[in-house]
Design brief:
wza like fold
């Protein structure tokens, strides 16, 4: 009976205590809407700017490289499947139709119209092929003087040229891979500097290479959205930075506020070079949503932290539940023990299981 009395006392006291704490906390929470300060000089929704004067390439960025001019370094010797252009001049009256574009067959033999015929060109330079054709024409025409006509051979396509056009991911070492042309360190460079560095690498293999470089995916710079969890664990999400995002864009990316979130939102922005702490930009959530006031819908910068504070009432409720839960569990066991002890008291046993004691004797 003593256990039962204690249990009854606790089970009545704890809910009352919880209600008193909740009422006390409710009295401490202010419902007054305070307008945060607006910084006119900072870029925001209707007054965006280019946050980065020149984008510096970082690790995990994906670059797209376009080959404007890729010509092998001289002297280049023709290979099977290369494309060549053959043009003759001064031969119009001699019926030597050598004007043609051709891809070199696997056997390396190009068939020119008669009377020149087939010639093997693989392993020769364009100049050597031109001289060979002129020699054939001279021999077949019987003209020793070839100063009045000529043949030019130029390279149209190179079958064995390593393609570099396409997407290139900046590796953990800050380099991009160019295949047989090696690798180039581009992390920390601007696009103009990366173009120069890549062309400098290619000039060892190609004649006056010319390429174009741009960023295909921005993966090296991020901003973060942190949602305080009110005792259930904070949630953190990372988003790639492209330079166009605002606070609303970031929160839309996490599908809006959570049920445990309050309306207090701010940006924590590091000072340049990491010195001097951080700057806190408080966001007027009601203003930028219900009232379309963009004054605090700031444009984000790389590595910004958008912090969404928890609802204090929900947080205190969670903490109170964590405190009460062990006692409720203990009381549950106490109740079970008290009921079991009452069930098996002597008076119950005398009555054959009937607590009143009647009907259990002999007739």
């Amino acid at each position: 009976m003593f256990v039962k009395a204690i249990f009854n006392h606790r089970i009545l006291t704890l809910p009352v205590l919880g209600c008193m704490l909740l009422l006390g906390m409710a009295g401490c929470v202010s419902t007054t809407h305070v307008r945060p300060a607006v910084y006119p000089s900072l870029p925001k929704e209707m007054a965006k700017t280019s946050p980065l004067v020149e984008y510096d390439i970082g690790i995990s960025d994906v670059l797209i490289v376009e080959a404007v001019q890729m010509v092998p370094k001289s002297p280049y010797r023709l290979q099977p499947l290369d494309g060549v252009s053959i043009r003759g001049y001064g031969l119009e009256d001699m019926e030597y139709g050598v004007n043609m574009d051709s891809r070199i067959p696997p056997d390396g033999v190009i068939a020119l119209p008669p009377p020149v015929g087939a010639i093997k060109v693989t392993g020769l330079t364009c100049e050597e092929v031109s001289e060979m054709i002129l020699k054939k024409i001279s021999e077949n025409s019987g003209l020793a003087d070839t100063s009045s006509f000529g043949v030019s051979v130029s390279l149209l396509a190179v079958s064995g040229l390593q393609p570099i056009a396409g997407e290139h991911t900046v590796g953990a070492d800050g380099r991009i891979n160019l295949g047989i042309y090696g690798s180039v360190h581009v992390a920390g460079l601007t696009l103009a500097e990366a173009k120069e560095a890549i062309e400098f690498q290619l000039v060892e293999y190609l004649d006056s290479p010319n390429i174009a470089v741009d960023v295909f995916f921005y993966n090296s710079k991020y901003y973060y959205v942190i949602m305080e969890g009110a005792g259930y664990g904070d949630r953190l999400q990372q988003f790639p930075y492209t330079g166009n995002e605002t606070v609303l864009d970031a929160i839309a990316g996490v599908n809006g506020m959570d049920r445990v979130s309050s309306k207090r939102v701010w940006i924590a922005r590091s000072s340049p070079y990491g010195y001097g702490g951080s700057n806190i930009l408080v966001v007027d959530w009601q203003g930028i949503t219900a009232e379309a006031a963009y004054g605090t819908n700031y444009q984000l910068m790389p590595y910004d932290r958008i912090f969404i504070e928890e609802d204090k009432m929900v947080a205190w409720d969670t903490k109170l539940s964590k405190v009460i839960a062990p006692f409720e569990r203990i009381m549950g066991f106490s109740l079970l023990g008290a009921q079991t002890a009452t069930r098996f008291t002597g008076s119950v046993l005398k009555g054959g299981g009937n607590p009143s004691g009647y009907g259990g004797g002999r007739y």
